[in-house]
């Protein structure tokens, strides 16, 4: 029997800022090297620890305008006066090569990805509590208090979008949340709709069973005679 050939798909991790989706995405890719990460483009300033092309593709407003104009972005959104977008070609190339692609985007981005890839798997990451979300945001020393307040307001608005997602994962225990996401991906790989060869394989199995049934019936008839 031929081996299953599962169609690759996009896995979207979205969450309010500070819920931990980026850390989960990195851990997911480290533990599952067969997955491919889509690096977003952004106009926001680079933080000290970040590297261009690894964490984000950092561009200025003019560069981002050109990406939008040329249709190079699969999705893009303005968040906190900065813009973020997913380069289209990299995602399409990875899927064509047979890789599942992980996207770390916001709620607006998740909606756009679902329009472009209806079979994408959307996972909403929830923080354990409002207090914990604020604590995590407060650890970002590079951001002023006004920026944190703005992120909290956005988080409150994004929470109501959870019903648009396929799965929700509570990030109260990091390793537990990571295992939950891995379980989601494993289950999605076994969806009948993603197996392009299922009809052929089932038909092949049916033909073989029919041959065995005929042989057993012949054997039974000869023994009866």
Envelope shape: elongated
Number of extended strands: 9
> What is the CATH fold-level name of the largest domain?
Rossmann fold
The first-level CATH class of the largest domain is given as Alpha Beta
SSE string, helices as H and strands as E: EHEEEHEEHEHEHHEHH
Strand content: 15-25%
Indicate the mean pLDDT: 88
The helix content, as a percent range, equals: 40-55%
CATH architectural category of the largest domain: 3-Layer(aba) Sandwich
As laid out across the biggest beta sheet, the strand order is 2-7-1-8-9
Structure description:
The protein is an alpha/beta fold and 225 residues long. It has two domains: 10-194, Rossmann fold (3-Layer(aba) Sandwich), CATH 3.40.50; 199-225. The chain has helices at 21-31, 61-69, 88-96, 107-116, 130-138, 145-158, 174-189, 198-224, and strands spanning 10-14, 36-37, 41-42, 57-58, 73-79, 82-87, 101-105, 121-126, 167-170. Helix 5 (130-138) runs antiparallel to helix 6. It is elongated, with a radius of gyration of 23 Å. 26% of the residues are buried. The model has no long low-confidence stretch (mean pLDDT 88).
Summarize the structure.
The protein is α/β, with parallel strands linked by helices.
